[in-house]
Specification:
- By secondary structure, the chain is mostly helical.
- Helix content is 45%, strand content 4%.
- The protein is built from 5 helices and 2 strands.
- The chain has helices at residues 7-10, 31-44, 63-75, 94-109, 119-136; strands spanning 54-56, 91-93.
- A two-stranded parallel ribbon has the order 1-2.
- β1, α3 and β2 form a beta-alpha-beta unit.
- The radius of gyration is 22 Å and the shape is elongated.
- The termini are far apart.
Amino acid sequence: MAYTWEAGASALLAPGSRGVVRVLGGPGTGKSSLLIDAAVAQLEAGMSPESVLLLTGSGRLGMAERSALTTALLRSRSAGPGRVAVSEPLVRTVHGYAYAVLRRAAERAGDAPPRLVTSAEQDAIIRELLAGDLDDGPRAVTAWPA
């Protein structure tokens, strides 16, 4: 779907615009399309693909939008002609990016990488914490109502 952006949104499409942008809107209002269009505009203006990161709340960017970003990356002057390789994804969920930051910090510190916990494991941990509070009775740090 093609969008016509109003003045505030179209300012993001200006070559060389920089900074952190937070795009708000309801479902189907074009938030993802605006972010993709802004990234495409920056890549086509010569920005390095390594300096572009789109953070999303979910991993549901449309196939056409991902394709547009990939096409722009392949055409970008900063990437040079031919093939392009980037070391990090250009589009990430907030959660995926947070995990990558923790993984890199652990790597730099020489620690084992973090491990994602399944929902069943989360439930077990919470159950153990609650059981510990119950066992502690009146000495518990958290006073639970009867």
